[in-house]
Design a protein that fits this description.
- Strand 1 and strand 2 form a beta hairpin.
- The protein has a domain at 24-58.
- The radius of gyration is 15 Å and the shape is elongated.
- The chain is built from one helix and three strands; from the N terminus they run H-E-E-E.
- It starts with a helix and ends in a 15-residue tail after the last strand.
- Helices cover 21% and strands 14% of the residues.
- The model has no long low-confidence stretch (mean pLDDT 82).
């Protein structure tokens, strides 16, 4: 959830044509594992794409 400062900044950018709701383009981290932002599948740190849903970082 965005804080008040983030919301004001997001509004500023959105008013000027910038996209503020970005999809995650990188892995999320859980301790010593990677977590897919699409399906929450857990993978080793060496993973290049999600073996559960096929998501790849952009």
């Amino acid at each position: 959830m965005a804080t008040a400062d983030e919301s004001v900044f997001d509004d500023f950018l959105a008013d000027r044509g910038h996209e503020t709701e970005s999809e995650s383009t990188t892995w999320e981290r859980d301790y010593n594992k990677k977590r897919c932002p699409e399906c929450s599948g857990i993978h080793d740190l060496e993973a290049a794409d999600c073996s559960v849903c096929g998501w790849t970082p952009t």
